[in-house]
Amino acid sequence: xxxxxxxxxxxxxxxxxxxxxxxxxxxxxxxxxxxxxxxxxxxxxxxxxxxxxxxxxxxxxxxxxxxxxxxxxxxxxxxxxxxxxxxxxxxxxxxxxxxxxxxxxxxxxxxxxxxxxxx
Amino acid sequence: xxxxxxxxxxxxxxxxxxxxxxxxxxxxxxxxxxxxxxxxxxxxxxxxxxxxxxxxxxxxxxxxxxxxxxxxxxxxxxxxxxxxxxxxxxxxxxxxxxxxxxxxxxxxxxxxxxxxxxxxxxxxxxxxxxxxxxxxxxxxxxxxxxxxxxxxxxxxxxxxxxxxxxxxxxxxxxxxxxxxxxxxxxxxxxxxxxxxxxxxxxxxxxxxxxxxxxxxxxxxxxxxxxxxxxxxxxxxxxxxxxxxxxxxxxxxxxxxxxxxxxxxxxxxxxxxxxxxxxxxx
Lengths: 119, 281
What we know:
A: elongated
């Protein structure tokens, strides 16, 4: 499996799992479906970008840093999309930051690196 | 008539023992070692102007040179030329390796990984030789050389009938030297592994050495590659075949191997719990 696919797969799984934790917040249970879809898509986008990064840079540390930064960025964008006065920045960005780091780690650790091309 | 002194007699004996290489292109320089079946000398190739090692066998065992000459491997010293002395003894010229014997190399207290690297490289040479039908038969620290660039050489390849050297010799080799198979080298490599392991070596590595040096050949690894595979498993943080582990040990090994991932998952859980608690305040 190549790293893009690893990123896509784990991004979807972790994104969905992260979104599912919204169930613990009764006030947003009515929006569970859209939260799940949004979180899954966010995870997939972060995963693909992390997978692309992992093909370019072979470093666990930098993979985690890049994943965390991407997770934070996309979590911010998702949080900013909320209704005025209902921006759950803290609740979305903190976990998104860590989920991004996990995806960054996994794309470094798993998957085939891009084939080297001869000059 | 002047009687000769002891020193003069010793010198004469040594001179008489020296091989007569007059018909070859090599000039003998000094004796550098004695193996189970011959003597190794440092010499110089007059034609190419390079140093070489010349091994003179105690008998007409030209088979040894032929066996080694067919083993082209980075960890096996290449043979340049072979021949027969006027007195019937066989000789062969090979690359003169500038390096340190394994037993002396360990005096520098190399790391565990470096010790295992040497065993693995020696093992790869043995595995290759076995595919060519050659068996070393006399593995011991004195026959493993570590070069100045970290290269490893397995020296002094034996021939049928070589008795080996205790404690690196397989029990069946002591009983019938001519009837051993590649598992005698598995024993030798296991004994070498045991030799290089520091007192603080992990239990799994000791178990690998134990299995390789089982008294019964059938209880050892099937071949050197199987032993090397177990070493690889250890280095990859996996369970080794020689050492069954308890569930607790397995869990601990998993945690050590995946500590970054577990740390990140723990961080995620911590963030979630903190956010949940903050919400309640």
